[in-house]
């Protein structure tokens, strides 16, 4: 990479180049739909269902970051939400589109890097992320927070599901500097309550907890953390 660093985005791109190329990896990951991967199922996250059932989330416009095969987007659309769902992988977006057609719901699926999204500030009532954030490199956390803040209306909600530290599914506890020394996220970074609270300190905390183990009607895995915040 020969880019001359003269502004923050140049630095972000330089650091990006130290890590694996994400499009190639995720297209390969989703190419075999028969793999025994929990989130290949077509059921929503247990915490998402809880947010709707208890009345925290009310129908509005949602931006889903890293939508995968569309299971949460489909659930939200069935509940009357208007959903823009984004993922970097063309393989998984195609799969999500197929599922949405079968379920007969309208969802705006977008194959794009989340940091290249273009939308009007304050466009969304909810930003939802299930499994994207723990694959974001440390230097991109700043861009990620800026993205969420820009997307949300004042009073809007941001909810996240991510690897707990050292879980059976992932959740590396290496330091931020070690990510760049080893040039790897080690399969995804782990976040506990303290880290999530520190990273999203600019938002009003509503709840941070471990995901609840659940039956097959929803996706609930104890190796994940869930959190919900509100934009002040």
Automatic annotation (TrEMBL):
Keywords assigned: Methyltransferase, S-adenosyl-L-methionine, Transferase
Keyword S-adenosyl-L-methionine (UniProt): yes
SUPFAM superfamilies in UniProt: S-adenosyl-L-methionine-dependent methyltransferases
Tree of life domain: Bacteria
GO biological process, one term: methylation
Cleaved signal peptide residues: none
Domain Methyltransferase: 62-156
Gene Ontology MF terms in the entry: methyltransferase activity
Pfam families, per the entry: Methyltransf_25 (PF13649)
Protein name (record): Class I SAM-dependent methyltransferase
Species for this entry: Psychrobacillus faecigallinarum
């Amino acid at each position: 990479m020969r880019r001359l660093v003269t502004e923050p985005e140049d630095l972000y791109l330089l650091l990006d180049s130290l890590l694996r190329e994400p499009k190639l990896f995720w297209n390969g990951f989703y190419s075999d739909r028969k793999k025994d991967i929990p989130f290949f199922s077509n059921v929503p996250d247990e915490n998402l269902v809880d947010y709707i059932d208890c009345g925290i989330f009310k129908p509005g416009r949602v931006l889903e970051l890293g939508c995968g095969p569309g299971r949460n987007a489909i659930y939200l659309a069935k509940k009357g939400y208007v959903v823009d769902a984004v993922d970097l992988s063309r393989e998984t977006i195609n799969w999500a589109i197929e599922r949405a057609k079968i379920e007969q719901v309208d969802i705006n699926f977008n194959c794009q890097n989340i940091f290249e999204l273009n939308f009007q500030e304050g466009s969304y009532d909810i930003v939802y992320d299930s499994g994207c954030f723990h694959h974001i490199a440390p230097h991109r956390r700043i861009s990620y927070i800026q993205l969420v803040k820009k997307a949300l209306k004042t009073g809007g909600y941001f909810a996240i599901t991510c690897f707990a530290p050292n879980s059976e599914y992932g959740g590396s506890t290496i330091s931020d500097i070690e990510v760049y020394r080893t040039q790897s996220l080690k399969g995804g970074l782990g976040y506990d309550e303290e880290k999530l609270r520190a990273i999203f300190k600019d938002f009003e905390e509503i709840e941070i907890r471990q995901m609840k183990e659940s039956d097959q009607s929803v996706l609930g895995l104890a190796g994940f953390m869930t959190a919900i915040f509100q934009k002040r």
